[in-house]
UniProtKB/TrEMBL annotation:
GO MF, any single term: kinase activity
Sequence ranges assigned to domain Histidine kinase/HSP90-like ATPase in this UniProt record: 895-984
SUPFAM superfamilies: 3-carboxy-cis,cis-mucoante lactonizing enzyme, ATPase domain of HSP90 chaperone/DNA topoisomerase II/histidine kinase, Calcium-dependent phosphotriesterase
Name of this protein: histidine kinase
EC number: 2.7.13.3
InterPro entries linked: HATPase_C_sf (IPR036890), HATPase_dom (IPR003594), Ig-like_fold (IPR013783), Sensor_HK_TwoCompSys (IPR050482), Sig_transdc_His_kin_sub3_dim/P (IPR011712), WD40/YVTN_repeat-like_dom_sf (IPR015943)
Xref: Pfam families: HATPase_c (PF02518), HisKA_3 (PF07730)
Cleavable signal peptide: 1-21
Keywords: ATP-binding, Kinase, Membrane, Nucleotide-binding, Phosphoprotein, Signal, Transferase, Transmembrane, Transmembrane helix, Two-component regulatory system
Annotated Gene3D superfamilies: 1.20.5.1930, Histidine kinase-like ATPase, C-terminal domain, Immunoglobulins, YVTN repeat-like/Quinoprotein amine dehydrogenase
Amino acid sequence: MRRFLFLLLLALLGAAGPGRAQTWQRDPLLGRLLIHELVQDSAGLLWVAADEGVFRYDGYELVPLPALTSRPGQAGIGYAQALVFDTQQNLWIGSANGLFCLRGRELMRITLPEQGAVPPRIYALVQHPRSHDIWVSYDNHLAYLPAGQLPARPVPSPLRAPATWLRPDGAADMWMVSVLHELGHGPPAGVAAVPVRTYLGELQPVPGTQPLQLVGSNALYEAQPDGELREVRRWLPGPNVNNFSPGTTPGSWQWVVARQLVELTWPAGQRLPTVARHPVAFEREGQLSRQYTVYTDASGLRWSASPGQRGCFKERATATGVDLLPTRPLRSYSTRAISRLPDGRLLVSAYGATLVQAADSPRAPLRPLPLTEAGRPTDAVLLDVATTPAGQVFFAEENHAFGQLDPRTGQVTRLAWTGTSSEFTSSLCLLRDLRGRLWGGTTRGLYLLDAASQQARPYPDAAVARAGQQIQKLAAGPDGILWLATKHGLYRLNPATHALTHYGPAETGPRRFPTDDVLCLWPTPDGRVWAGTRDQGLLLLDPARGVAEHLTTASGLLSNTVGTLLPGGPNELWGGTYAGLLRYNLRTRHLSVLTEEDGLADAEFNRLSAWREADGSLLFGGVGGVCRVRPAPAPASPPRPPRLLLTAYTQHLSALDTTRTTYLAGPAAPALTLAPHDAFLELSLALTDYRAPERARFQYRLRGSGDSRWRGLGTAHVVALQGLPAGEYELEMQGVSARGEAARNLLRVPLRVQALWWRQPWAWLLAAAIVAAGLYVVHRRRLARVRHDERLRSRIAADLHDEVGTLLTRVNMQAELLHQAQPAPSPAFDRLLTNSRAAASTMRDIVWGIDAQADTVGALLDRMRDHLDQTAAPAGLNTHLATDGLPDALPLPPELRQHLYLVFKEAVTNAARHARQATDLWVSLTRAPGQLRLEVRNNGPAAGTSRSGMGLRSMRQRAEALRGTLDAGPEPEDGFRVRLVVPF
């Protein structure tokens, strides 16, 4: 009783089902303008002539004409009346300030014949499609530009007033209508008046009709031989209105008047046109009705605008009929299962109610079917329904066991589980196969339903039960194969052999499938299967070859979650997603989508909520209720996909410390360059599909960056790049329209990011050259200084040798002579002789140390041999001099050479003086990596240096001067050793 009162209360509230979506919608940007004309260029961009000037429109931004010209200050167009493109895609502009031509980015003012000092107002502008002549109506004159070339030439005309309407005819002729309703017709050589009395209002002649037909806003007329007009077809009551400006396509005229879209079509071979009318609601109630011109763009989208009313509307037209099933008394409902009961009624399960529709009334509202269980009302929500030939209705219900429904009484009974564990099991889906068996999918595997015993028992194969946990959909192929969609992948089961094959991400080869979460299935007659997934879109799987097709948002889907699949015809597949309905032509592989713009109450559809009617119509359920789709026949050739364009780019210019936006004048994408300190680059994209540009999706990738994966932008149409390292890149961009049509072109933009000047190759080469030059200069200076020092040392050595050395030699000789002349030399003469000899020897050592020509190893060894002969040999010592790794030509620095020699000399002198019992003296000069080693060693009992210790101290000082080490001391067994190690 409470349930009945609740439903009665809803009925009394008078809740009505949602109405159909409006056919037209206001364009948010064009709606700001008072529009006179729309044209489309070859790239697909729209151009607008309005009271406010000329604009280019890409679906996202209105770009004023000055921003597209090379010299914005020269525009001065003001009020724009007409636009036309010539064969070279130059834009001709007719305005209140004269005629202009935009060629590339150059805007030129055109002088017309008989033009006065004040620029004329342009009323009409048309290009003839055959001769390509451009006709211009201005003031009370006519002119034409042959094939769009200057100069303009006058056209003689008998019209007394400016022509406001021009329409091509024949090979080069033109029809025209003046503001006084006068008709003219003729070639550029001269126009003749047409004697027709147009007192029935503003009428437009139809080129090529015999007898001449004239179209008014409300009726069609034919001209009689006497000039009178005879009405031959009427579509609206009342007189024709003024300011009547129909839009035309080949074989069709269309306009909006009195809130009616009127379309005339002249079929081939018929004299009179067919008339179609559709209501539109552009103005608010009570507003003065205006006349709207209808323009059809290249994609077939119709636009409508009136110069007397701000706003521009575009038609949300679709070739598919979509109806929302009304309900009483529910206002809205989210559906689950949809099916036909054995008595023909339509059954719809929704959250909060179960609804039915009479079998013989497809337009009747859905009404509640109260459900009871064990004599009490139940809120059961049916997820899936299956019927038997005997008329039994079984269902799966989330969070409960399988059940059976009595469609006459609404009584619900539960099936018993057999052979199941105590763990909770929920029923999720049902299937009746070709043999009549009832299969059930649950959260714990696969079950078989026994209608006779009212039981659900697990499938006998334990492997299938384990593998198929959380079975979300069951489908049977024409060969009896059973397909299982689960949360653990896709399974193929042969019930005859119990063979089970798994397809999933962890598999390899043909069994690899990109996702684990499969929601819905549709087997094809050839043994393959289409699978809708939660995160990977729609896939076609060939059991032997693997995934054959894969459709995602990059292919045109609005969502990668596909919850239902239905065949729409022999070559067509439909599906419900979380963002609209998908329609896929299996033959042409053309994908399209339906959304709210196509009449859907809501674009989010529920899993398993779909049904195909016997008449071919499709039912899909979602959060907005149930919609009926009547698929129209697919066109023989699908519409041409939209084009992806780069319309502008915004760049930060570090040199000027400013940000600049450049609007591109053509479809070609330029090569772009970023300076080293430029902060960012933004590229604006657009698709030439204006139905719902805010829902178009884009993606890009940057080749040459090391990560060339596609990056999705979603519905954002701007690619932003910043912080790129220096290098050469190629930016690739793709787009998909709101209807799921992928752009027919891949947009590529070469991009170069310059390096900082000190990172440029030329900078490194220049730096290397400067360093090399500096090192060369330093080397030359050092070499010059070394040579200067060598010359100076050689000169000093020569002077000492020649002067002082010669003097000391004479002194020594005189001392020798005096010593020999004395019969008994006194000690004074002995000391004189010894000192003269020592002075001469010291002078030779000094000269040798200074002489630059002695800076080699060979010179050092020669000097060492001389000293051994002069000192060690007279002392009775056998001398041994050895070298290793020291060629004679190896240069030695003068300081190192001199200190080595003096240490050697001191060590040898000490050995000769103090090692009285020594018999041998060993001297070695060897070279090791980074070292030079001098060693002087003698045998015999250990002997020290001089008693004063001055010799050892002098050697240590010389070792320190060379940053080396000196070891001096007795050998462990016998003798004495001096070892000097210096870096070399």
